[in-house]
TrEMBL record, chains A, B:
Protein name (record): UPF0122 protein P378_18615
Organism: Desulforamulus profundi
Family of the protein in this entry: Belongs to the UPF0122 family.
UniProt function note: Might take part in the signal recognition particle (SRP) pathway. This is inferred from the conservation of its genetic proximity to ftsY/ffh. May be a regulatory protein.
Keywords, comma-separated and alphabetical: DNA-binding
InterPro entries per the UniProt record, alphabetical: RNA_pol_sigma_r3/r4-like, UPF0122, UPF0122_fam_protein, WH-like_DNA-bd_sf
GO MF, any single term: DNA binding
């Protein structure tokens, strides 16, 4: 997974646990694609300060994921749901006669994993 | 939602963010159904100390949910996936001719909500 995409995904899950300033910088840097220099100017701080704040924020997000593992878990589910949708479509076009049974297995497996979570 | 079930669900998501002692007490009290007195004896602390630790742990779990809202979000998804499964079964028994279309809508809606998350 690309670093950019990974940070955005972690931020979607855990962003509200960061400080307001960390959230601002992450959104501007990763969301709006501003440069470190542009953010520094906007907040009247050094480029190094922006860099350090971003690094700390990324570390914090990474630590939450290490502990909770929710991004990993729900990314896997996301792919399973995509697969289920694909199987229904293939069943409907006659390409996958077992498609509905496979879809049910996938959905049952998601529910089962959640109960064990 | 019953308090007991709610705490267990919050603990499933955010438990690893609690201190080790908080985790121990929650598991013994909510998971193994020990009494405050039994936990107090086992850890050689007062019944009041067990009570206070549990309350603080519950507050912490509640605060994480207020900020992140993941339990609420994924409980809703869980019910949607159950509904999707039910619809496929009804389609297969001829009770719901639109079942597959409805299932696809539900699954697409889950994927869409996640992208916007």
């Amino acid at each position: 997974m690309k670093e950019f995409h990974k940070i955005n995904l972690l931020y979607d899950f855990y962003g509200s646990l960061l400080t307001e300033r960390q959230q601002n910088f992450i959104e501007l840097y990763y969301g709006d694609d501003l440069s470190l220099g542009e953010i520094a100017e906007q907040f009247d701080v050094t480029r190094q300060a922006v860099h350090d704040t971003l690094k700390r924020a990324e570390q914090t997000l990474g630590t939450y994921e290490e502990k909770l593992g929710l991004v990993d878990k729900f990314s896997k589910e996301y792919r399973s749901i995509e697969e289920a949708l694909h199987l229904i479509q293939r069943y409907q076009t006659g390409l996958e006669p077992d498609g509905l049974e496979k879809t049910k297995e996938i959905l049952e497996s998601i529910l089962k994993n959640r109960q064990e979570f």
